[in-house]
Specification:
The strands form 4 sheets. A 6-stranded mixed sheet has the order 1-6-5-2-3-4, sandwiched between helices. It has a 5-stranded mixed sheet with strand order 9-15-14-11-12. The longest helix is centred in the last third of the chain and has 17 residues. The chain has 3 domains: about 220 residues, 3-Layer(aba) Sandwich (Rossmann fold), CATH 3.40.50.620; about 90 residues, Tyrosyl-Transfer RNA Synthetase; about 80 residues, Structural Genomics Hypothetical 15.5 Kd Protein In mrcA-pckA Intergenic Region, Chain A, CATH 3.10.290. The chain is of the alpha/beta class. Helix 10 crosses helix 11, helix 12 packs antiparallel against helix 15 and helix 13 packs antiparallel against helix 14. About 45% of the residues lie in helices and about 15% in strands.
Length: about 400
């Protein structure tokens, strides 16, 4: 069986390792426990969290035991990494509610039966900590001078770093130590902005336990155009279907920049690399096939095969004039009487997720970017009435790729 280290490296997951040869050798001869922390700053994770999640799934598939660690304790302090100002501190009740959502979400990716994976919350051991005891036993192993060389702290010193945030490295290092002691966890993985925190944890294990632990960081994933993963003009692409519908999730992937298709197929699907490379060689109109595969596979992993198939069918019907079912398309329901009277076009577009405001809807229509049933609207005050219904449905479109369905209330 191929070493999981080589698999992760070939697929583009690895940006840095504390000891490459040592870790590769370890993963080749021993099944280990590894962990990644997820701060519960929201009820749902988003597309930007997929690289860490997928890496844990790959580790589990290779027989290793992953620990997704919900940072219910560390989020009460706030990680300064990658931030120019202090994060908003959440209440314990908010953190607990967010942690529940993330726990449920991660269960869709990992198999937690029979201790094949462990879902833990660091609030269990961080919240009860005795501060004086923690400073004496843990704090004495940290050099302030060395801590200040970490990118997260160096950047924040220019805008202001408070003492609460300064403690974050100690807490994350203590997480690694605790997991090493209790679960024999030998590897922490995380984003490139976590390098200093990960190294601090491995060093703490060496100092206090005389043990060898490892760290691995992932590259910062941006699109070919330089945009941050999971961010669109319409907002964040969430993993929760209540926040981002499976159809919209599918559309996010199928609209991938041509230059990103092969890289994203390697990172966000489980297709064999030979197949990924074959799709990466496609050009022109044939590349649409590769994008459809990416969208289907990514949606299947997050929302299941049934939702992925529905999204693909709806997308094919909307964009390819094929027969199919439009149920997966985002939908707005109108009362029959209201539609019979007529609704102004700008008002209708503003009520859907195609536009975020009435002003945006008016601009879209006036610039010729709004369509009803495939026909461009001529004016912002054009009325949409029951006569626009086609088999009980009106299809709105903004630009070339964003669709919305309007149906009548059956009540």
């Amino acid at each position: 069986m191929q070493n999981i280290y080589d698999i992760l490296k070939e697929r583009g997951f690895i940006a840095g390792v504390t000891d490459e040869d040592g870790l590769r050798d370890l993963l080749g001869v021993k099944k280990i426990t590894c962990y990644i922390g997820f701060d519960p700053t929201a009820f749902s994770l988003h597309v930007g969290s997929l690289v860490p999640i997928m890496s844990l799934v790959h580790m589990q598939r290779a027989g290793h035991r992953p620990i997704p660690l919900v940072g219910g304790g560390t989020v009460l302090v706030g990680d300064p990494s990658g931030k120019t100002e202090m994060r908003q501190l959440l209440t314990l009740e908010e953190v607990e509610e967010n942690a529940k959502g993330i726990k449920k979400q991660l269960s869709a990716y990992l198999d937690f039966s029979g201790d094949k994976a462990l879902l833990l919350n660091n609030a269990a051991w961080l919240v009860p900590l005795n501060y004086i005891e923690f400073l004496r036993d843990i704090g004495r192993h940290f050099s302030v001078n060395r801590m200040l060389t970490a990118d997260a702290y160096r950047t924040r010193l220019e805008t202001g770093l408070n003492f609460v945030e300064f403690n974050y490295m100690l807490l994350q290092a203590y997480d690694f130590l605790h997991l090493y002691r209790e679960y024999e966890c030998l590897l922490q993985m995380g984003g490139s902005d976590q390098w200093g925190n990960i190294v601090a944890g491995a060093d703490l294990i060496r100092r206090m336990e005389g043990g060898m632990a490892y760290g691995m960081i992932f590259p910062l994933i941006t699109t070919a155009s330089g945009d941050k993963m999971g961010k669109t003009a319409q907002g964040t692409i969430w993993l929760d279907p209540e926040l981002t519908a499976p159809y919209e999730y599918y559309q996010y992937w199928i609209n991938t920049d041509d230059r990103d298709v092969e890289r994203f197929l390697a990172l966000f699907t489980f297709l064999p690399l030979e197949e990924v490379k074959r799709y990466g060689q496609l050009t022109g109109a044939d590349l649409r096939e590769a994008k459809e595969v990416l969208a289907f596979e990514a949606t299947k992993i997050t929302h299941g095969e049934e939702e992925a198939a529905k999204a693909r069918e709806t997308s094919r019907m909307a964009f390819g004039n094929e027969e199919g079912n439009l149920e997966a398309m985002p939908t707005t329901t109108l009362r029959k009487g209201r539609l019979e009277k007529g609704v102004t076009a700008w008002e209708l577009f503003a009520e859907t997720d195609l536009c975020t405001s009435r002003g945006e809807a008016k601009r879209l229509i006036s610039q010729g970017g709004a369509y009803v049933n495939g026909k461009r609207l001529n004016g912002i005050d054009e009325l949409i009435t029951a006569e626009h219904l086609q088999e009980g449905t009106i299809i709105l479109r903004a630009g070339k790729k964003r669709y919305h369905r309007v149906v009548l209330n059956k009540g």
